[in-house]
Design brief:
Length: about 240
């Protein structure tokens, strides 16, 4: 089936992103894989083509508003689900070194299939909770950037994500608004971070509000964080 990508191209242009035919084909294949697998497992409630392009792919790529992609970065996507934002970022910016982390094995299996079918390099999908891999002998303080579109409050996400970030790196949270920031300030500081920027905008050619919260890792995260599984969400800092 021939898909109409004219609006997608306009959205990309608005973000100052230029893709090759190969990259565009990867996005289309990714969509088809997503829809096909969604028939047998719950990956997304957004399945209509144009809506998925806007709310999943373009939304993921808005990271370009706060991150310089001319530099090489190692990036961890915590609670990646069906691969957002990690897979769209990897397709658009092939030099990224991407690790996708999710707690459900079936989703990780899907991501591994996507990586194989799209012939993506320097990207891996790992099965586990955010608390599992944040140990010094595993992935603690290994990444330039950690991102998350996961549905959790900012205090909780900071405890999950900041332990993975190198000193001088960034945790960037995708949110629909900035209402949580004040309530998360104490947690961010305890975990070694400092709020650097809140970028509020609408997705291209839409009235869909988005907010990127940029937190710099300034100090090592105390070794007791993240706490054991489930504690961060039940008792946010």
């Amino acid at each position: 089936m021939k898909r109409d990508i004219s609006q997608f191209l306009k959205d990309l242009e608005e973000l100052h992103i230029t893709l090759t035919e190969v990259q565009l084909d990867q996005f289309l294949k990714y969509y088809e894989l997503l829809i096909e697998k969604n028939k047998v497992m719950n990956l997304t409630a957004i399945t209509e083509f144009q809506e998925a392009l806007k709310k999943h792919f373009i939304d993921s790529l808005t990271l370009i508003k706060v991150l310089d992609f001319t530099e090489e970065h190692s990036l961890l996507d915590v609670g990646t689900g069906a691969g957002f934002p990690g897979i769209p970022l990897k397709i658009a910016f092939p030099n990224l070194r991407v690790t996708l982390l999710d707690s459900l094995q079936k989703r990780v299996g899907f991501l591994q299939e996507v990586i194989t079918v799209l012939s993506l390099e320097q990207v891996e999908a790992l099965h586990g909770r955010a608390e599992d891999f944040a140990k010094p002998e595993l992935l603690r303080e290994r990444f330039d950037v950690c991102v998350s579109r996961a549905v959790a409050n900012l205090s909780t996400l900071s405890e999950y994500c900041l332990p993975y970030v190198k000193i001088g790196g960034f945790f960037i949270s995708y949110k629909t608004d900035d209402a949580e920031v004040d309530g998360a300030d104490r947690a961010i500081k305890i975990l070694g971070g400092e709020l650097r920027e809140q970028k509020t905008f609408t997705l291209p050619f839409s009235d869909i509000n988005r907010n990127l919260i940029v937190i710099e890792k300034c100090r090592p995260t105390p070794e007791q964080y993240p706490r054991k599984a489930g504690t961060a969400s039940k008792k946010p800092l």
